[in-house]
Design a protein that fits this description.
heterodimer; A: OB fold (Dihydrolipoamide Acetyltransferase, E2P); Ubiquitin-like (UB roll); six-stranded mixed sheet; 19 strands; about 30% helix; B: about 300 residues; Ammonium transporter fold; binds iron/sulfur cluster
């Protein structure tokens, strides 16, 4: 039976209504004229495999990671490739090499990889995860092949809990692509040698749960309906709620025999098995807009073009464009940058005052923290530069969910600081 | 790598900031304030105006002195109102003004500022002046004081608010019903949580009952209810953890009863709060929540 995780937030009626609205908007294919694929993601530096000016097709590899730790990047458009060094067409505006593909409007497809057979052994599925460019599509973007490589797990959690406000594209995948998702889950299950009865499909809304039931039809997979509560979709909180387990800090769930994959990753797995690498993804365009949209777009589609698919209700100086969710996304520095593989949302949100006032010790941050931390104390310790105290307060256990900052009446930048401490210390 | 807190997520922030919370407390104190003026006349109004005015000015001067650029957060108004309402009507205005200056200037700002000061500023200032000028605070006879033998039992609804405390009661503690009204408002607005008021009154009642006292009369008289709703719940002086909050509530309730029964001063709230304020950092430390993934005997639901 599902158990609740601690802390967290139940969003207001308005925010839940916005999500519900988006959940009823069908996915719609959108093809931009150009895509931008930055060759630096976190600590990974990709090397281009194409030269400036060559013609590429949909599904062609355009860059690989020489270390082999991250799967290759494929083009989602057919057209002319441009390799630009020190381009600032990145979401955070930091310069790196960017491959842009200027579409020729033909959508010529590359020769697909040979389809996997239904009885493929785990290692060839894992190889396909690499060749297909699969990374976790839920946000963290951990390379899927590394998660599943040489694993014998007892549980596979398929995460369709889209707990971020506004976002609904994963829900649409569940509702619309039943067969694809089922096929993908099958491959994931085999790749991780998970017994059929160890598969859990998790959602937190009625419509999505219903879709999951259709997916699980005729299998021994279990559908788990969880309460609508942020951050239900976070890996640790999901494991806590579904399996009643808390993993020690620093342990990967996969090492404990638990695999967690996002529903989008499952869908992409099915495509990859059929020979089509990860070139497109679903994305919700929402926020303070007249009509939210769910789009299926090439990876690298400029954010500005995505945002233009809706009608913002706020503009200019009061509005900002967010890549990802409202709680964990990033404000875009360059709106012309391309959509990363891991990004499931583009939001138009009002700019709020960031002026901090002194903490009044109301305790709200303590009550909402799903990691059981004392955010205000860490904030204080950090401001006094007491690194030892930060460690004592277990700042490294933060999952950067943003709950603490969300509720703070003093608008302390708790999550941002604690995340910074965690990154520095871990 | 430098840390930039600019434009960091989350992009949804709480719209109710400190000023709004403090305004809610002021709103919830309004019925009791109006009642105070009703029962004690214009003098009560002068007390309230003096306290609020002096607190506000002290707050602004002190902000300038400390060079902080923070906008006015409303907490000084709450402190002023609470101070006025917890004094007897006969108190000289200069003494009340002095308490406000000491509360805001010294006990709040000089000792760390809001959220960081150890003691509840209003109660600390009150205690300091109570011990310095005992005659004014505890010995002053009230013009309209009614004796305490007015139990809930008799009378219709309109009479219930007329429940008076002791002869030397404070102007804000006259009506239990109005205090409960304020409490309801604060609970609905989620400014306070039920734990501290309910558990502190329960612990108080328990100790009184052990001593064989008249529980209901003790609860309704004096400043217990006022304290339970407005003073024990002060964010700064109470623990931030859910368990700490419970321990604090039980401790402060029991202490109030003990001080009232056996203490040197007739009222216990003030010193009980100050003692528990001292323990708050310790309680916070001892009751830290279990960090996810760490052992403390996994509690399964
Ligand atoms: S961001 Fe970190 S500290 Fe803040 S609530 Fe989430 S886990 Fe807790
Ligand atoms: S929520 Fe903000 S004001 Fe309240 S205790 Fe936490 S940091 Fe302080």
């Amino acid at each position: 039976m599902a158990k609740a995780f601690r802390g967290g937030i139940r969003f207001s009626e308005t925010l839940r209504a916005a999500k519900e609205t988006a959940l009823h908007v069908p996915l719609c294919v959108f093809t931009p004229h150009i895509i931008h694929l930055p060759l630096q993601e976190g600590r990974t530096n990709f090397s281009p495999t194409v030269i400036d000016g060559v013609h590429v097709r949909v599904g062609d590899v355009v860059a690989t990671d020489p270390t082999g730790n991250t799967p290759p990047i494929h083009s989602g458009l057919s057209g002319t490739a441009r390799v630009e060094k020190n381009s600032r067409l990145t979401p955070d505006g930091k310069p790196c090499t960017v491959i842009s593909v200027i579409g020729d409007g033909l959508k010529t497809a590359a020769i697909p990889l040979p389809p996997l057979s239904n009885t493929a052994d785990p290692s060839s599925i894992v190889q396909r995860m690499y060749d297909g460019g699969l990374v976790g599509l839920g946000g963290a973007g951990f390379p899927t092949f590394r998660k599943y490589k040489d694993k014998t797990a007892h549980h596979l959690l398929i995460n369709a809990c889209e707990c971020e406000p506004y976002l609904a594209c994963d829900g649409r995948l569940v509702i619309e692509q039943t067969d694809t998702v089922r096929e993908g889950i099958n491959y994931l299950m085999h790749a991780g040698s998970v017994p059929e009865s160890g598969v859990r499909l998790c959602a937190e809304s009625d419509a999505v749960t219903e879709g999951l039931h259709r997916i699980a039809d005729g299998t021994r997979w279990k559908v788990v309906r969880l309460p609508e509560r942020y951050p239900q979709g976070s890996e640790k909180q999901l494991i806590r709620a579904v399996l009643g387990l808390e993993l020690p800090q620093g342990v990967y769930p996969a090492d404990w025999g638990i695999l967690v994959s996002n529903i989008g990753t499952a869908a992409a797995m099915a495509d990859a098995a059929n020979g089509l690498p990860l070139t497109h993804r679903a994305v919700t365009v929402s926020g303070v807009v007249a009509k939210p949209r769910n789009l299926f777009v090439p990876i690298g589609t400029p954010f500005r073009e995505l945002a233009a698919q809706t009608e913002p209700l706020i503009t200019g100086r009061q509005s900002q464009l967010i890549a990802g969710g409202a709680m964990t996304g990033r404000r875009l520095v360059c709106a012309d940058a391309g959509l990363p593989k891991t990004c499931g949302g583009v939001l138009v949100l009002p700019i709020e005052s960031e002026e901090e006032s002194p903490c009044i010790r109301c305790g709200a941050c303590v009550r909402v923290c799903p990691s059981g931390l004392m955010p205000y104390l860490i904030d204080q310790a950090w401001l006094q530069q007491e690194d030892g105290l930060c460690a004592d307060l277990k700042a490294t256990s933060c999952i950067s969910c943003g709950c603490c900052s969300r509720v703070c009446p003093a608008r302390r930048q708790l999550a941002a600081r604690i995340t910074h401490i965690r990154r520095k210390g871990g | 790598m430098s840390f930039s807190q600019k434009h960091a997520p989350p992009y949804l922030r709480a719209h109710r900031r400190t000023l709004a919370i403090m305004s809610d407390v002021c709103v919830s104190l309004t019925p009791s304030s109006v009642a105070a003026v009703w029962f004690f006349g214009l003098r009560a109004m002068w007390m309230l105006l003096t306290a609020v005015g002096v607190s506000f000015v002290t707050d602004r001067l002190s902000a300038r002195l400390h060079g902080t650029s923070h906008p006015f957060d409303g907490s000084a108004l709450v402190t002023g109102m609470i101070l006025a309402l917890s004094c007897p009507v006969g108190i000289p205005l200069w003494l009340l003004a002095g308490m406000c200056i000491v509360a805001i200037g010294v006990f709040r700002d000089a000792l760390g500022g809001i959220g960081a000061n150890l003691f509840n500023p209003a109660m600390a200032a009150r205690a300091l002046l109570l011990t310095s000028f005992p005659a004014y605070l505890s010995g002053y006879a009230l013009p309209h004081a009614v004796s305490s033998a007015t139990p809930l039992s008799g009378g219709d609804a309109a009479l219930i608010p007329l429940l008076f405390g002791r002869v030397n009661g404070s102007i804000g503690e006259t009506s239990a019903v109005l205090i409960l009204l304020g409490a309801t408002y604060l609970l609905i607005r989620r400014v306070i949580r039920w734990q501290i008021p309910v558990l502190s009154v329960a612990a108080f009642a328990f100790v009184i009952a052990l001593d064989g006292g008249d529980v209901l009369r003790h609860i309704l008289s004096g400043s217990l209810l006022f304290g339970a709703v407005y003073i024990f719940t002060d964010y700064t002086g109470s623990p931030t953890t859910p368990l700490g909050e419970i321990l604090f509530a039980v401790g402060v309730g029991a202490l109030t009863a003990m001080l009232r029964l056996w203490g040197r001063y007739p009222e216990g709230v003030c010193f009980a709060v100050l003692i528990m304020n001292l323990l708050t950092p310790l309680l916070d430390r001892l009751t830290r929540p279990r960090v996810y993934g760490t052992k403390r005997k996994e509690r399964s639901a």
